[in-house]
Amino acid sequence: MTQLPAPELARQGMQTRAERIGSGLSLLIGLYTLLALLSLGVLAALWAFSGSFWQELGAGSALPTWIFGLGFVLTALFYLPYLLALSAARRAILSLRDYVSSAGDFSMGRSGGRPDALSGDVKRFITWLGVWQWGTLASAVLGLGIVAASFGLSQVLLPDNGEMSLGGPETVLVLLSGLAQSVPTVVLTWLVLGSIKRFFAAALSHARGTPVPVTPAATAAGGWLIFSLVVLGLGLATLLLSALMVLVVAAVPGLGQAFEDNAAFGFSTAIFRGVMWGLAALLLLSGLLYGLLMTLAAWSRGFALDVAAVLDAGSGPTALNPATLNTSLGPWKTALRPPDQR
């Protein structure tokens, strides 16, 4: 059986991974669109019936109606950049696939691709990655602001329940806790997206004829994607354990009856179990989303290394070839071997 040259093997792997990433991103866009529509629908309903809704809760007309309108707008602004960035990512990856797939004789380093067809999609994606970076920072700051404002709003809505409101020290403690959780997320997102930006910028420069090796950027991006896999895996494990705990709580005999007997809660055992089952289903769906993100991260790492192997293959014997070449198309397979130097 004839052994294919390493660049040709990488090109075939790149094509397959690009197809799978494109399908995965389409599914992810659909899921985020569904979540956005559900969230906006709930906020629109609360906005439409806000007056009677809060009167039933005994809060009177203290809550301004525009609060729900503001929440509707902020939710739309939250989901829209993600959807546009994911759409731009899909177009950039498929465009890069088309460019690398149209390469000619790898041994001579000739390429039949058209960088002008690649430039627009890649530059658009890089722009949206920058928006994503700053958006993560803005979301963290806005989230802390909303938490702080909610404390004051609860005192306005429920003036007779002062013992339930938080004082100054408690508010500062909650904000510091939120800050401690937000900073790692912002830093990790910034570094991961920055490495992806540098990889696509290096690939575009190479396609334009600039002698820039793509391998260093692809290796750096692959390293951060592995780190993202670890973080996503921990998140997935937490979601699954949380879902298991919720199911155990829902199955405990007599616990729902205890809630029903307590007049402060005021709901039946059936409602209690329904809420628990719904919460468990939501956690499991979130786990599926995390699993999809992990699969996309694994395939993206292999895609970046394959693109680097193809584009750097024609730079001569002094080219910076990838240290390893992933010859397996499975997202969890990590059996690597050096490129064939013959």
What does this structure look like?
The radius of gyration is 25 Å and the shape is elongated. The protein has one domain (6-337). A two-stranded antiparallel ribbon has the order 1-2. With 342 residues, the chain is mainly α. Helix 3 packs antiparallel against helix 4 (115-157) and helix 6 packs antiparallel against helix 8. The protein has eight helices and two strands, in the order ααααααααββ. The chain has helices spanning 6-48, 50-56, 66-101, 115-157, 168-207, 215-251, 255-261, 269-311; strands at residues 325-326, 336-337. Mean pLDDT is 75; it is low at 104-112, 317-328 and 332-342.
In short:
The chain has helices at 6-48, 50-56, 66-101, 115-157, 168-207, 215-251, 255-261, 269-311, and strands at residues 325-326, 336-337. With 342 residues, the chain is an all-alpha fold. It has one domain (6-337).
Shape, principal axes of CA atoms: elongated
Number of DSSP E strands = 2
The helix/strand order is HHHHHHHHEE
Provide the low-confidence segments as ranges: 104-112, 317-328, 332-342
Strand order, main sheet: write it out: 1-2
* Rg over CA atoms: 25 Å
List keywords for this structure.
single chain; 342 residues; mainly alpha; 8 helices; elongated; DUF975 family protein; transmembrane
